[in-house]
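Handout, section 4.2: multi-component inputs.
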Amino acid sequence: MEEDSADPYLPYDGGGDTIPLQELRGGGSNYAMSNGGGGAGASISTHLLDLLEEPIPGVGTYDDFHTIDWVREKCKDRERHRKINSKKKESAWEFTKSLYDAWSGWLVVTLTGLASGALAGVIDIVADWLNDLKEGVCLSAMWFNHEQCCWDSNETTFAERDKCPQWKTWAELILGQAEGPGSYIMNYFMFTFWALSFAFLAVSLVKVFAPYACGSGIPEIKTILSGFIIRGYLGKWTLMIKTITLVLAVASGLSLGKEGPLVHVACCCGNIFSYLFPKYSKNEAKKREVLSAASAAGVSVAFGAPIGGVLFSLEEVSYYFPLKTLWRSFFAALVAAFVLRSINPFGNSRLVLFYVEYHTPWYLFELFPFILLGVFGGLWGAFFIRANIAWCRRRKSTRFGKYPVLEVITVAAITAIVAFPNPYTRQNTSELIKELFTDCGPLESSQLCQYRSQMNGSQAYPAGSDAAAAPGVYSAMWQLSLALVFKIIMTIFTFGLKVPSGLFIPSMAIGAIAGRIVGIAVEQLAYYHHDWFLFREWCEVGADCITPGLYAMVGAAACLGGVTRMTVSLVVIVFELTGGLEYIVPLMAAVMTSKWVGDAFGREGIYEAHIRLNGYPFLDAKEEFTHTTLAREVMRPRRNDPPLAVLTQDDMTLAELQNIISQTSCNGFPVIVSKESQRLVGFALRRDITIAIENARRKQEGIMLNSWVYFTQHAPTLPADSPRPLKLRSILDMSPFTVTDHTPMEIVVDIFRKLGLRQCLVTHNGRLLGIITKKDILRHMAQMANQDPESIMFN
Amino acid sequence: MEEDSADPYLPYDGGGDTIPLQELRGGGSNYAMSNGGGGAGASISTHLLDLLEEPIPGVGTYDDFHTIDWVREKCKDRERHRKINSKKKESAWEFTKSLYDAWSGWLVVTLTGLASGALAGVIDIVADWLNDLKEGVCLSAMWFNHEQCCWDSNETTFAERDKCPQWKTWAELILGQAEGPGSYIMNYFMFTFWALSFAFLAVSLVKVFAPYACGSGIPEIKTILSGFIIRGYLGKWTLMIKTITLVLAVASGLSLGKEGPLVHVACCCGNIFSYLFPKYSKNEAKKREVLSAASAAGVSVAFGAPIGGVLFSLEEVSYYFPLKTLWRSFFAALVAAFVLRSINPFGNSRLVLFYVEYHTPWYLFELFPFILLGVFGGLWGAFFIRANIAWCRRRKSTRFGKYPVLEVITVAAITAIVAFPNPYTRQNTSELIKELFTDCGPLESSQLCQYRSQMNGSQAYPAGSDAAAAPGVYSAMWQLSLALVFKIIMTIFTFGLKVPSGLFIPSMAIGAIAGRIVGIAVEQLAYYHHDWFLFREWCEVGADCITPGLYAMVGAAACLGGVTRMTVSLVVIVFELTGGLEYIVPLMAAVMTSKWVGDAFGREGIYEAHIRLNGYPFLDAKEEFTHTTLAREVMRPRRNDPPLAVLTQDDMTLAELQNIISQTSCNGFPVIVSKESQRLVGFALRRDITIAIENARRKQEGIMLNSWVYFTQHAPTLPADSPRPLKLRSILDMSPFTVTDHTPMEIVVDIFRKLGLRQCLVTHNGRLLGIITKKDILRHMAQMANQDPESIMFN
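Output:
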C-alpha cells in the first residue's frame, strides 16, 4: 500500500460522514435523502465545488477567447436552480423570484423574437428606400420608396405602374429630362455616387465603431455556440452598428444579402436581453440556449420560414440543442415572424419578398434538369469556397488587407459601374430573385415574359400554344448570362469584406439565374419538340407543361446548398416559400445532388472553412473522426516534452505553486496524491488558482510564500513554526474527466463533442499520464487531415 | 511504489512499441500516421479489442432484454468502415462492395419508405372496406366500400349521395326493408356482430401468432431506440400480424387509432430491410438509425406530415439522432408520403382524410377559448394517463389480465352497443374528426351545419346574418356531448388491450368534440351579442367571424398534447394538415397550455408512463436529474454489500474465474492490477468471458481448471509444471469509462445519456471503488422520485 494518510475516504463506507452535516445544511441546497431499499441510509451530498467556503468572486468565469466547460456550467445552473427551489417556500418574495426565474426563459425568447422581428422590418424598409434613392426621389414624400410613391398614382396599367409623376429620377430632377444619353449618364453617375457613399459610410462605421460587425457573423456564432467566448461580439455596439451598416451595405448594391447578418443581429438581441435575467447572463451554457433560439428567429425573419429557422438553428448553427431549446426556438421564430408580418415591409402581407405559388405539377422527366442544376450548385459551391478562402487568406496574410476602406470602395465602384447597364444586376438582388421565381402570367410586363402569346396581345399565356419565346426572352437570356458571370465573380470578392455581408441572397441569385435559363431552355425544347417521346405524354400542344420559375427556385436551393451544405433546413425553408408539398421532391433531388457533388471536392461548407481560416476552436459535430489513434498518442506531454506540470494535494508551498504557474502556460493543472504514486485527485484551473491566491492574500492574514497549500479536506500536520496554510479545496474540481491511454481517439472526440469538455486527463492503470485539451484534439485532427496544426490558435 | 512488473507500459514513451508492428499491419485497418510536428513519430495504433487474435464468434453480441453499449457499437462500425475503405482499392469487386456499403443507408431508408407507404395505403383501404361492412355490402362489387359503391350512382344531390341502390344495408339484404324498428334492430345486431367478430379475430391472431403485435408499440420502440434489445419485437411475424390485426381492430369500432401502430409497422419494415445490409444488421447502433428514419416514415404516412414525422422522430422517439439521420429520416418520410399519395386511399389526392383549409382569420380575443381548450387538453391528458395506468396495473397484477380475449370481446361489445345509436360514435373516428374539423359550407348536409341560413334555403352561409343555430345544431351538440363522455371512458379501457391500438385518433377525437362544442358556443355568443365590446370590432352582423372547425382542430391538438406531451412536432403535424402559417399561434397557445397543465399533474407522457409500467430501462433525455447525490452513493457495492467482484489481470486460475462468474450475477467485471493496489486495468463482460472460455476449451488444447488466466499483453511467468495459460486480452475493454466517487450524479446521468453507456466504474484517487450501471441509475432515480426501485427490471 502506498501513502494514503491524507485521504479521508475509507472505501465502502457509503460516504456519509466526511462532511460535517450542520455546515452543509447552511449551504441552502436541496438535500436529497435516499430512503429505504438503497442500503446507503440517509446520505448527504455535496457538490463539485466545496460549499463549505463562501464562493470566491471571479472563480468560474472565463477569459476572452477561451473555451467554456459545458459540464461545469450546467452543474452551476442546476445548483442555482436547487437554491431557488429550496428558498421558494420561505417568503412570498422568494416565491415571486422563483416564478420569475422559471418564466425568464420564455420571457427572454419572446423579447428576442419581438426585437428581431422589429429590427428585420426596419432594415427591410430602410434598405428598400435607400436602394431606390440610387435611382431617384419621391417628390410628394421624400421618405417613400419608388413603389409607395406610385401607389396613389393614377397610372394603373401594369406596364406603366412604375412610372408616375411624383417619382423623379435624378436626371429628371437635375437635368430636367427623362430620356436621352445625357440623362442616362446622369442616372449612371448618381447610381454610382450613392453606391459609393453607402459603401464608404458602411465600412467607416464598421472600422471606427464595431469591427465585429463585419461579415455574415455565422461562423463566429457557430463557434460561440459551440462554447467559445468572444467578448463584445454580440454586444450592443455590434448590434447598433451592424443594423445601420447592414442597411447601407445592402443599399450600396454590393453582391451581398442581409440574411446571415440578420442571424447575427438576432443573436445580439438575444445576448443583450439575456442580461436582464441572471439565469442566463451568469451562465455561459444557458446563454447559448437563448442564442440558439435567437438564431432561429433570425432565419425565420430572413426567409419568413419559422420551421426552417428552427431546423437551421438545429442543423447548422447550434451545438447543444436540448428539446426545451427546440420548443423555445420555435416560439421565438414564430414571434419574430409575426412581428415582421405586422410591420408588412413588402406590402404583400407575406413574410418574404419572393413568395410564390405554382399551379402546374412537375413531371418525372424533369428530375434530370433538376439534378443537373444540383450538379451546377455543387460545383459552384466547391468553386466558391475555394476561391473565396484563397482570397480571404491572401487578404489576411498580405499588406493588402490593411486597407479595408479602399478595398470596399473599389469593389463597390466596380459593382456599381458594371451593374448599372444590365437591368438584372441594377435592381435589388431580392427583387431579381422574386422576378426569376415568379411564373409568367398575363399581367407580367418583364422582358422574361415576352412570349409570342403576349406579343399577339392574347391574354392566354400560359396556354402553351404560343409559348414560343419572342425576342425579348432571348435578349433577357443573354443579359441573365452576363449577370450570372458578374454575380459569380463579384460574390467571391465581396464575401469577407469589412461590411456586413450575407451569402444567402447572392448564392440564391446565381442559382435562380442558372435555373431560369435552364427552365426556359427546357420549355422551348418542349415547345418545339412536343412530339418527342419524352414530352409526348404530358406536354401536348396547348398544355402548360414547364414552369421556368420552379427551375429558378430549384437552382437557388441547389446553389445555396452547395455553398452552405445545409440539407433539411434548406429544403424546409424553400418549402415554406412555396407552401406546396408537391415541390419538395425536385428540391430534395437538387439539394442532395448539390451536397454530394460539393462534398466530393471538400467536405467543408463555407462557414466551416471560415472558422478554420480564423483558427477558432470548433469541434464539428458533423465531421466523423475516422482515424485509429489512441489517446496516448495525442495527449501531452509528448515523447520529448518536459513532464506534465502537476500539483500535489498536500505537500507544496505557495512559492512552489506560484513557481509552477509562472513557468507554464497551460490553463489548468492536475492535482495528484503524491509525486511517487501519480494517482489523480482532481483538477484545478490556472485562472481559479490565481484568483484564489490573490483573494486569500487580500482577505486572509498570514499567507506567506512559505505557507503550505493543500487541496485535501483537512490541513496536513505541519511543523509548529510554519505560517498559516492555504486551503484551496474549493477551487478543486474533484470529478475531472479521465480516459485510459488505450482509449481510441474516436471515443475521446465523441466525449468532447457530446459533453462539451475543455480538457480530459489520461491515465494508465489508475496513474496520471497526461492531458488532452480541445486544442490538442483540433490540432491532431488538423494534422490527420494534412493541415497545419498551428492554425488552431485558441484554447 | 507498488508492484507494477506485469505492466508493459512505461509512462511517457509516446506509446509506439508495445504492439508488434507487423502483426498489426495484417489486421487490415487503415493506420493513421501522425506526420511531423506532433512529436510522437510514426505511431501505430490498435483498437478497443485486441486485433492480434481472430475474433471469437459471439463476442460483441447481446442477450435478449439487455442494454447495448453505444460506444462499443459505434467503434465497431468505424472499424468496419475503415476495413472496407482500406480494401476498396484492391479490386473492382471490393470497390463495388464499398459503394454498396456507402449507399446502403439510402437504399434501406428508401425501401423502408416505400414499404411503409404501401402498407399504410393498404391498411387504409381495407380498414375502410371492413368498417363499411358493418353497415352493409355493395351488391355490384363486394370489394367496394360505401363511398366507392355509390360513385357511379345517379343520385347526385349531396343530401342523398350516401343512398344509392347498389349499396344495401344488412336490414335491406336480410329483411328486405330499409326502414322501421325491425330493420333498425337488424342493423344494430349486424353492426355488433361484425364488430365482435373483428375484435375476436384480432385478439386471437395476436395471442396465437405474435404477442408483441399488441398495443401502440411506441413505448417499446422508444426503449429499443434508446438501446435495448427485444428480440422479435420488430420481426416479420410481428409485422404481418400487426398489419392484419390493425385493420381488424380499427374496423371493429374500438376506440383506437392506427397512427401509433403504423409507426410500429414502419419500424418493422426498417428492421427487416436492414437485414439486407450487413452494415445495419450487424450493428445495433446503426440499426437504430434506420429505425429512427422508419418511425419518421410511420408518422409521415399516419398524418400526411413528412416534416412533422421527422420532428416526431427527433422529439419523441429517437435517442441518438445525428444529423445524417435527420436527412435520411426526412427522405424516408417523403418517400412514404409519396407512395401513399399515389395509392390515394382517401380519393382526395391528399395524404390525410382530414385535410382542411380555413379562410377566415382568427382574432386576438379567441386566444382565450383556445387557452381554455389547452387547459381541457392538459386535464384530460393527466386524467387519462393516471386512469389508464391504474387500469393497466390492475390488469397486470390481478387474475383479470389472464383473459385477454374475453376482455377485448367485452370492451368491443360495450363499444358497439353503446356506439350504434349515436351517429357521431357509430361512424369511423377519423371521419368524425374530419367532419368536426371541416367548416360548414353551403353543401354540408350534416346536422352540425343546420343553421338558420340553411333552413331558409339560402346558400349564403357562411354569411353570418343567419348564423343562428337551428335545432339540428342543438341536437348535434347534445349527441356530441354524449359521444365525448363515451369516448373518454372507452379510451381509458381500450388503450392497453391485447390488440394493436393507437392513441392519437381517440385523443384527437375527444379534443375535436370538445373544441367544436366550444367553437359553436362562442359562435352563438358572438351572434347574439355582436355588440359586446369583445365582438364589436370584428364580428359585425353579416361578417363571418368564428370558425368552429378551427376550434375543433385546436382542441384536438391540445388533447393529443396533453396525452403525449409532444410540442413542436405536434404543432408541425397539425400545421401540415392546414397548410397555413396563420393558425400556428392558436395551436401553439393551446399546446403550450396543455403541456403546462399536464406537467403540473405529472411530468410523464403516456408513453413514458407505459415504459415505467413495464420496467424497461429507459433513461429519458428530457427529464432533468436535479438531486445532489454523488456517484459513491449510487454505486455498488453499497455499505453492507459484499465487496465488488473483480478479476485480477494476471494471477487467477480458470477455476477461480469460473467460481467468480458462477457466484455472481452481474454482467461484467472490472479487471484490476492486483487486489492490493485496486488500480483499474479494464473491464470484461460476463457474456464475453463465458463465450471466450467455451471457445478456448473447444479450440485450444490443454486448457484446464488450473490454467492461469491473464489479461495482460504477455503471459505471466509461471511455474514449470503449470498447464497452458489462457489469454483473455482480446475481450478486455481497455478503455472503460470511469468517474471519481465525488462526481455529482447529474454529471454521471448526463454521461450515460449522451454517450449511451451500459456501465461506468467509480474510482477514488485512482483506485477502483465500485460500479454504476444503467439499472443502478434508473433505480436511484425511481427512489428519488419515491417510486419502487424494484420496478426497473432489466439491465
